[in-house]
Give the backbone structure.
Amino acid sequence: ARLEGPQYSAASPVPLKWDCGSPLSFLKLWLTRDEGLSWSLFQELDLKTRGFPFSGPDGRYGMRLSAVPATGPEESPPRAGSVPQYYLVIDTLPPRVELPVELDGRVFLAGEPIQVAWRCADDNLPPYPVQLTFSWDNGKTWLPVGSREPGNGAFPWTPPPRHSPDCFFRLTAEDLAGNTTTWTNAKPFAIDNLNPSIEVLGTRLNAEGQIQISYRMSSPGFIPVREVSLFYTTDRGAHWEYFGASQELETPFLFRPPSRQEEYGFFLAPVRERGPRQNPINGSTAPQTAFRLS
């Protein structure tokens, strides 16, 4: 006689089946909880049905059947050291997960790596029980982050190039019995994918001999602009020099020519509290505006 059923179950009782190729008078089910070191009689099975419910607390059960054929001697019951015919693990508890990275309310730059780490504990985990997903639309759409991951792991995750204040990160862990645990940050975090920009409105020479550069700044992102940097060129962008920065963020920017060059080209660059700078590149960046001294 042999037993058939699932190897893992998230609920109890568990439906099991038995099968035998010859008529029987009795069929007994024996259990071990210590890998066959000791055995106990669990019950005598009803021969009228080939299935029966097995109930028990969470744990690993080894099982053997001993049959009494309709004709012939009874099979010997299992003894110390007998190998189970069948194993069943009852596991009704979901995995325990921990993701120590604090995401709630934070602002990340698109393309800025975030070190994500997690821990998952359960007695019956497969090799890769964790699936990471990401949502940028308040949980309406979820995208996978990589492939399935081990129970304990870490890697630098780079947010996709999306601009959103409603981002969530989700970790789902599943054990071999099918129990799942889902972790999601309680409050949304933001991904900033919009750079600030400056539009130069005009230039003029004031009474003190300073060139006034009027501009309008647009800052649609979530990371504030800290200052505005001014660069100048006397050879139409072949070489750029840093003049200074203003933390007032007010127009106009005042430029005092360091020499009596005939023409100056200017480039204004917003500088955020975090993120790459938008400085001009020698020989590549054209002036935003120019002013010729008469």
